[in-house]
């Protein structure tokens, strides 16, 4: 019974998030997965390492697919996401966490950029009109 209430709470909180909040959550998840993958690699838990790297790749692919291509910044973000995907594929196949550590600053910088864009659009909703509904040219297709 308690589990059902918690699941309902989680579902409701995700459904009420803005697109910017959802993006921040996705970047947080990428960051968490990369950090955790490093710990799993150190412990030689290779299945868990590969699963976390793959999940980070899946999230990045989702972000790339959700870009609204009518905005010029989308092309730049797509190239960045493509670079991150290639690097993480190399991390996974070579079990080289150093490459993932190079991506972490990019993830953090993107997170902070979208966090700021979300803050600005919440403060002044008209700002979002020219940059992709809620947050800097990314449409998640959620809700």
Automatic annotation (TrEMBL):
GO terms for cellular component: cytosol. The keyword Cytoplasm applies. The keyword Hydrolase does not apply. Keywords: Bacterial flagellum biogenesis, Cell projection, Chaperone, Cilium, Cytoplasm, Flagellum. Its main location: cytoplasm. It comes from the Bacteria. It is found in: Cytoplasm, Cytosol. One of its GO terms (biological process) is bacterial-type flagellum assembly. InterPro entries: FliS, FliS_sf. CDD domains: FliS (cd16098). Belongs to the FliS family. This is Flagellar export chaperone FliS. It comes from Aminipila butyrica. The gene is fliS.
């Amino acid at each position: 019974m308690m589990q059902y209430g918690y699941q309902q709470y989680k579902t409701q909180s995700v459904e009420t998030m803005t697109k910017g909040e959802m993006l921040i959550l996705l970047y947080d998840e990428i960051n968490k997965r990369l950090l955790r993958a490093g710990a799993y690699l150190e412990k030689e838990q290779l299945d868990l390492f590969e699963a976390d790297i793959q999940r980070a790749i899946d999230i990045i692919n989702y972000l790339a697919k959700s870009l609204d291509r009518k905005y010029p910044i989308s092309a730049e973000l797509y190239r960045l996401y493509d670079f991150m995907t290639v690097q993480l594929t190399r991390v996974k196949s070579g079990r080289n966490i150093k490459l993932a550590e190079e991506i972490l600053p990019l993830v953090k910088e993107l997170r902070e950029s979208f966090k700021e864009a979300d803050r600005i659009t919440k403060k002044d909703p008209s700002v979002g009109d020219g940059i992709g509904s809620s947050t800097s040219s990314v449409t998640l297709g959620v809700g």
